[in-house]
Write a structure and sequence with these properties.
The complex is a heterodimer.
Chain A (H helix, E strand, L loop, with lengths): L14 H11 L1 H18 L1 H4 L31 H37 L1 H15 L3 H12 L3 H27 L3 H8 L4 H37 L11 H8 L6 H29 L6
Chain B lengths: L1 H27 L5 H6 L5 H11 L5 H13 L13 H36 L4 H15 L2 H15 L15 H35 L2 H8 L4 H23 L1 H14 L5 H10 L3 H29 L6
Helix pairs in contact in B: 1-4, 1-13, 5-6, 5-8, 5-11, 5-13, 6-8, 7-8, 7-11, 8-10, 8-11, 9-10, 10-13, 11-12, 12-13
Classes of the chains: A mainly alpha, B mainly alpha.
């Protein structure tokens, strides 16, 4: 049974609905959301969206410039660039999503425990995080790939690990202020366990900011994944990746379409993720007016 | 000032410790037997045992770490497993390339980013401001290697103005070096210029709205002097911080840029080392890169403290 609205009052809007409404009102955020959704759609439904078989070789169209049959041209084996970009989106979306999700979970748990327990635990954990943050992201990713070996899963693990310190620092900073608030003290007074306080009371309070941070990091993760693939340290052939396609493009400079379109896909996707992150940040910022 | 420097150096110790552990772990964490990873599947048991002994892998991990750290501090980073050349010599040969590239990119970022940032702040909401904002946002999303490729296509293949790749040392052929360095420097400097421009604009807008600027204008100080002497001096403080903080990203950019332009720098040494399973070279190059980034961060902190009197020295 639905509860009738009291005359003269406006039904209160949930946090999710408010964020969604404000995000759609944010011009750049809306563009970012639409482009990101388009890339995700292409990745999810790649077999139905691709105009040609991405591995299909057309001997009569080797290094063909963009034309009616192959909109973005073909590569050195006569394979359709557009179809390979769409299949490459699958790899990129998968790696970025899983890597950021892993970093999100691991970083949040580390930051939560570090901030909540404080003292020695906090000191040790944060010094380790500081040490990891001292590495340039790509250099640390290279070090990890050097140990694990170059392939798609290892690239994803590397990207996840390099992103953990950022999440941990963010969550820890928030936990330090939240743990002193009355509702946490009350939960403690009522006998709630540390684990319950951390997961049921503190975590929900910080998760919003972490989501915003995750969306902003997704763009960097995409560029890191592309860089690793470009260097030959990500997914290995025949799996098409945007970075790998650009590396091949460097051997065929006259076929400019091989160097331009996969790069454009990375650039537009990274830009869209940045816009989406900025939009989400503004949409979730309670200090900003509607 | 001495106390502040000392405090920062003390803070650096645990960070350096973690960095050294991570770099040391590169060989330690190799899956399975590291000698197998280094020598390959075909290596005989005797060869593997000899390498284990040579690398000290038969000793306890802590002893291995202490030995490695002691040697590294003394400048001995071992020998390349592929060429047997001393890693420190390899680093000395490759460091000038990366240094020239990153320093050039920083200079470019300041020369382009600061004036455009000032212009965007002075002409707020004009087309210049909007163009600068659009460029700044795009710059952050540009992968370095793609920027490099586009520059090669335009300036080397279409216009034929500049060579597409290669490197000659500055002292050997200054003109050739500069010609070869223009495109890589533009590649790495473009994204940094965008960030510096964005930061300068924000900082200038904040400073220009403060009372002391209004006072300076009321006293009849010329607009140029207000902007350049009063506002810019204060606005540059956060800009310097951004430059310092971005050094890590810049070095990451240099890694891929060196590959695009075939430059024999530290980044390329890491990538080649990974492919050739030359882990001593990888360890050495990564250690030097991170130490360099930490040194720049420390220098930035000290500059910041020296420029901003509100920070207690």
């Amino acid at each position: 049974m639905s509860t009738p609205a009291i005359a003269g009052t406006v039904p209160s809007e949930g946090a999710f609905a408010r964020t969604a409404r404000r995000l759609m009102a944010h011009r750049l955020g809306r563009i970012g959301l639409l482009v990101s959704a388009l890339v995700a759609f292409c990745a999810a439904f790649a077999p139905w969206v691709m105009p040609h078989d991405p591995a299909g070789i057309d001997y009569e169209a080797i290094l063909a410039a963009p034309h009616a049959k192959y909109w973005l041209g073909t590569d050195e084996l006569g394979r359709d660039i557009l179809s390979r970009i769409i299949e490459g989106a699958q790899v990129s979306v998968q790696v970025v999503f899983l890597a950021i999700a892993l970093a999100f979970v691991a970083g949040s748990l580390i930051g939560l425990a570090s901030g909540y327990f404080g003292g020695m635990v906090d000191d040790v954990v944060m010094r380790v995080m500081d040490g990891l943050l001292a590495f340039p992201i790509l250099v640390l990713a290279l070090a990890i790939v050097a140990v694990l070996g170059p392939d798609l899963v290892n690239a994803m693990i590397a990207i996840a690990i390099v992103n953990v310190p950022g999440f941990a620092r963010l969550v820890r900073g928030q936990v330090l202020s939240i743990r002193e608030l009355e509702f946490v003290q009350a939960a403690r007074a009522l006998g709630a366990s540390d684990l319950r306080i951390m997961l049921r009371h503190i975590l929900p309070s910080v998760v919003g900011n972490v989501v915003v941070y995750a969306s902003l990091r997704a763009s960097t993760a995409l560029i890191t994944e592309s860089s690793l693939s470009f260097l030959g340290l990500g997914a290995q052939p025949p799996t098409p990746t945007w970075g790998g396609m650009l590396a091949t493009g460097m051997q065929y400079w006259d076929a400019w379409w091989m160097s331009v379109f996969p790069g454009l896909a990375i650039f537009l996707s990274a830009l869209a993720l940045n816009f989406l992150g900025d939009g989400l940040r503004d949409a979730m910022d309670s200090r900003l007016q509607d | 000032m001495h106390r502040y420097v000392l405090k920062r150096l003390v803070h650096l110790v645990p960070v350096l410790f973690v960095v050294s552990v991570v770099v040391f772990s590169i060989t330690l964490l190799l899956p399975g037997d590291p000698t197998l990873a280094i020598l390959g599947e075909q290596a005989s048991q005797a060869e593997r045992l000899a390498l284990r002994e040579k690398m000290g892998l038969d000793r306890p991990v802590l002893v291995q770490y202490a030995t490695w750290l002691g040697q590294a501090l003394a400048g001995d980073l071992g020998r390349s497993l592929r060429t047997q050349e001393a890693v420190s010599e390899m680093l000395a040969a490759r460091m000038p390339v990366t240094l020239q590239l990153t320093l050039g990119a920083i200079v470019l970022a300041v020369v382009v980013g600061v004036p455009l940032g000032i212009l965007a702040a002075l002409r707020r909401n004009s087309w210049i401001d909007m163009l600068c904002s659009a460029v700044a946002m795009s710059g952050v999303a540009l992968p370095y290697f793609w920027t490099g490729m586009l520059l090669i296509i335009l300036f080397s293949l279409v216009l034929r103005w500049l060579p597409p790749s290669g490197y000659v040392p500055l002292l050997q052929d200054p003109v050739g070096n500069l010609k070869l360095m223009i495109l890589p420097t533009l590649t790495v400097g473009a994204a940094m210029s965008a960030l510096v421009m964005r930061q300068t604009r924000t900082a200038m807008l904040q400073v220009l709205s403060q009372d002391f600027i209004r006072t300076a204008r009321a006293k009849g100080v010329s607009e140029a002097r207000v902007v350049l002497r009063h506002a810019l001096r204060n606005a540059l403080i956060p800009v310097i911080t951004v430059i310092g903080l971005q050094t890590g990203a810049l070095v990451g950019g240099a890694v891929v840029t060196e590959t695009v332009f075939g430059m024999p720098g530290l980044g390329r040494m890491v990538v080649e080392g990974i492919f050739e399973r030359d882990f001593a070279a990888v360890q050495g190059a990564i250690l030097v890169i991170v130490a360099g980034v930490l040194a720049v961060n420390l220098a930035t902190d000290l500059c910041y403290a020296a420029l901003d009197r509100r920070i207690k020295l």
